Amino acid sequence: MYLLGNLIWMIFGGIVSFVLWAAAGLVCCLTIVGIPFGIQCLKIAFFILWPFGKDVEIGRFGIGGFVGNLIWIMVLGWGLSVTHLVIGLVFCLTIIGIPFGKQHFKFAKLALVPFGTEYIQKTGSKGVYQLIGIMGGTFNPIHYGHLLMCEHIREEFNLEKILFVPAKTPPHKGSAEITETEHRMEMVGMAIQDNPCFELCDAEMRMEGPSYTVETLKVLAEEYGEENRLCLIIGADSLVQFTGWKRYEEILDMADIIVARRPDTKNRLLDLTVARMKADHNARIFVSGATALDFSSTRIRNRIKEGLSIRYMVPECVESYIYEHDLYARK
Questions:
Q1: What is the sign of the dihedral through the CA atoms of 309, 315, 316 and 322?
Q2: DSSP single-letter state for residue 243
Q3: How far is CA 308 from CA 139, 299, 305, in A?
Q4: What is the pLDDT of residues 32-68, one digit of tens each?
Q5: Which of 295, 326, 324 is nearest to 312 (CA)?
Q6: Phi, psi at residue 97, to the nearest 5°?
Q7: Segment 90-111, tens digit of pLDDT
Q8: pTM score, whole prediction
């Protein structure tokens, strides 16, 4: 969806440019600035609409006025982007100054907004999908890193909501390391209670045995039906190890994968992993532009054991709950 998103953006940008130049021309003509300046602005505005009513020929092929105008607007948009880029470089390298140059860099980058952004398709043979994010984990305890990352991903991929699914018995961790499920469920519920787009899910609490993602997704797929599309949110480190997960091929069939980077993510390895999985398994994988905060549940537990503050690392209600129930303290 990279190219389509950028083309739409450029068409929109060209139309906005026309409106702005036309408005500037009218203002100039009606004020002390003067009619000559206004006329120049109006000429630029109508220059953007040049192909309307005309046929544009490219080689031996004729392009109708409307299609030609769309192409013309996109070309102008790219031209404006390049112009601002050059002006920004000139400003940064001359006495005019870096601050002015940076502003022009921002204008230039605006035309490239859709590039590097992926969009999850929301329509299919069954009609329009609702996108449901699935955020699993031990949440031992839940912290602001989880919450900020999920909120960014929800907005970035236009998810209807995100289900927080605490693991009952993670297969990769010993039971001695995990706080009782009741405590973890309660902390997650308190942390997300003020966000209507976040929802606590007890799917794994109702299951017997180890908490395998493939089994959880089966339960959720049955509960949410074909009108919803599941989007599994995982960390970049988990994706690198994904082919070691239980029945991972079934996971790829049931859900799209949204990958969140960590501060220590090796981007080259991540890109290679994504490319390989798309080629080998036709996987639907989308890498978020968000980067998780540089702290973890393990770090929070260790700070509590050492008698250090966890303020601003977890929501205040979670911090109070931890101390009230004497969780994670050194025994």
A1: negative
A2: G
A3: 20, 11, 8
A4: 667 777 777 777 766 666 554 444 444 444 444 555 5
A5: 295
A6: 115, 150
A7: 767 776 666 666 665 555 555 5
A8: 0.65
